Amino acid sequence: MADAGGIFSDCFIAFVPSNQLAPKLISSLSTILTENGATTVEYRRDGSIPIDRVTHIVSNTIDFPQYIDSQAYMIPVVNTHWITISISRRKQAQVRPFSPDPRMIFSEVVVTCADLPQMDKESILGATMALGGQESKDVGRLTTHVCALSMSHPKIVIALEKGWKGKVVLPHWFDDCFKLGKRIDEGPYLLPDPEILKKGPDEELDIPSNNNLVGASSANPEFISLSDGNSGRPPVTVFQDKLILLGADLKITPRLENALKDIIVYGGGRLVQDVDECNTLICQYRDGEQYVRASQACKEVGNLSWLYFLIVHNDWTSPLRRLLHYPIPRNGIPGFKDLRITVSNYGGEARIYLENLIKACGAEFTKTMKADNTHLITARNSSEKCKAAPEWGITVVNHLWVEESYAKCEIQLVNIKKYNHFPPRTNLGEIIGQTSFNESRLRDLFYPGGEETMSPRAKRKRKILEAAEDNAYSHGPAEGVVIGEVAHGGDSDTMQEDNSEEDSIPSAAAAKKGRRTAQLVTPVRPRPGKENETPVVMSTGGRSAKAKAMNMLSSIAPDIALYEKEKKRNAKPGTPFGGKRAAELVEKEKAESAKKPTSNKDGEDEEDRPAKKSRPSLPGIEMRIILTGFTRWVGNQNKEDQDRRKLRDLGIQIVQEGQPCDYLAAPHVVRTVKFLCALARGPTVISSTFIEKTLETGKLQDVDDFILKDTEAESKYDIDLERSVSRAKAHRGKLLRSIPIYCTDKIKNGPESYRAIAEANGAIFMIYRARSGSNIKPTTAEQDNFAPPEPVYLLSGTTAEEKQLWQRFKDMAERGHMEPRVVSPDWLLDVAMAQQVRFDKKFLLEAE
């Protein structure tokens, strides 16, 4: 029975925006959750999720930076279907079947069995549910699959008569998926005419395409189409606030380095020259001082292929997610050195990927198969090579063998069942590229130790990584998966993320009482000598698993406090280094000044001659600020030039509209184009009195004392400025991604200012004129899978000429199965200011 306050009344939920979960859908789902009792949790100032204050994270991907944190704290991560299914059932659904983790291969599969032996039925249902699926007693509206041997069972006949749209599959499909540990296409197993029973394994089969390998088929790609920040392409906002070090072992050309720098800087990041300063290292090999120090400090470490992937897709992904996005071992994997390997039945990117992976392992790749080959990697066990290989003494395996050998950093035994399994009508190229690294294995081999030199931040991150690993399954198809825990015990406040800036806000766990208890599988780490120990099913009672995770993390608290203290001290403008590093810098300067004097061409020591007055070099840029509504320089260009030079000497650069910035400065909240475009990047908004005070005193001020507060404007525009900034940091310029916005060309103030605001937030912006053709492809509700129509907007004024366009626009939208909304431009300004896709009927323009 649902709680009186709603089915989500005990839930504190945060969303992760991504290509798979756009902000407009987040806005709609947030409304639904709130109406059903949930509390949606806002992002922190830096755009991160306050892990200590949430009970659930909604994300359609595990590719977000705080996924490891969620595993450590056992916060369940669920996809959006969890919300819709819970609403339809009028009670909270289990979290396991809605995990976005790709290792839960039967996530969203709801299966029932028809006319199978009891033993087979229990085996299929048990394994399916262990890997994210659900059992359905009968064929209902939510059932996705029926496992059967024929179509004649009454359960199937009745369901089809009622218009059921699911799939009837042979049990062989489940069996093949279990054996591989991957989900393959069920097409060849579909009744009533399954291909595996109709065609032989030797008959021709198309080579499938595979999106897992896009941008990940080489560890060191030779070419990428790069363009700098002045080319008109949107900024790569995934680099916002990133401090990136291009490793010394990359050996890239100065031209390429400059192109990369332009893209990173235009996206809001910075290139640095020292490992201690960076938070992301790009290098080629898993060795050297830079790699070891960065890895021990738990910084992101990837290769050029990963960097290019981020540039092209502008979405964060872990460099550990794809094998060739991580630096390669310089001497390969032990055991591969003398192997000669060829491949068969793979095509396109998959073949290129395998060639590069084999070489990275340290083996020799051969395009053709000869008698001296040692291994054949094939996607199907049917080709001339496959037939000849056993006669020549060549081992035949599928690609999982080389992938898992590379991921585990040691050669795997070839007689393991999944490496020798070949479903008869499946090309295994469809599941290539799904294997990931285990960070702890990399650490043991390539960067052990380092605890004595770890910063408080690195120690905290290391504890989180270890806790996440302890909470994960240690072996099997779901190795590395953490389901999370729904119920939070009353002792969950024993370990929280440091939240010193928001101490007055209690944690979600402390705010709610009487949470539901939950049953979940808690993996038990194998003891020495018991590597194959089976995980134990435990009843957590809502406490034990969470308490375990919290206890493991509790030792971080002193490190967090020290780290936050250092961070605040060092974050003040004008103090880029603190404590030890400042002393090191002074010593370095002394050493340089004590260098031996050089001789000039006349043999005299330069020291004995009057020294030439050299122009002091400018300090590094510590703050990039966009100014708007600033009246100090109006009509006085000379004063502006002088002030800009003074600011630059203090490490402050005043940047132009559209450029990356750390801060947005204004006397108060203003709805100018410059303010709204800059806000989309998520800069800290400060009062322009910071600039005034710095110029007056000639010293950098503490920027935290100048955070802009404008309660009058916030009330007028119905916003919370701090929330707007945190949302912008999370959305990274993609608030209006995929939302089409049209604008009349006769609109007051012209369409270009609205274009700038819309495109700064990722919208698709188009001019709508009297002679405009239909820009929306006509579709029907059936073609759109009966999804509700998406809104499409027309920004317009109320002149007679503009009103004539309204009906034509509405007709065009309705033909495309979209909901037309003719609105005043205030709607766009409201959304950009709140950094939230919201709508109110007051913005609609109605024809008289």
From TrEMBL:
GO biological process: DNA double-strand break attachment to nuclear envelope; double-strand break repair
Biased segments, Acidic residues type: 494-504
Region feature (Disordered): 489-544, 585-618
Source organism superkingdom: Eukaryota
GO cellular component labels: Cul8-RING ubiquitin ligase complex; nucleus
PROSITE patterns: BRCT
Record lineage: Eukaryota, Fungi, Dikarya, Ascomycota, Pezizomycotina
Record's compositionally biased regions (Basic and acidic residues): 585-602
Protein name: BRCT domain-containing protein
BRCT domain segment(s): 3-100, 101-191, 336-408, 793-845
Species of origin: Hypocrea virens (strain Gv29-8 / FGSC 10586)
InterPro entries per the UniProt record, alphabetical: BRCT_dom (IPR001357), BRCT_dom_sf (IPR036420), CellCycle_DNARepair_Reg (IPR053036)
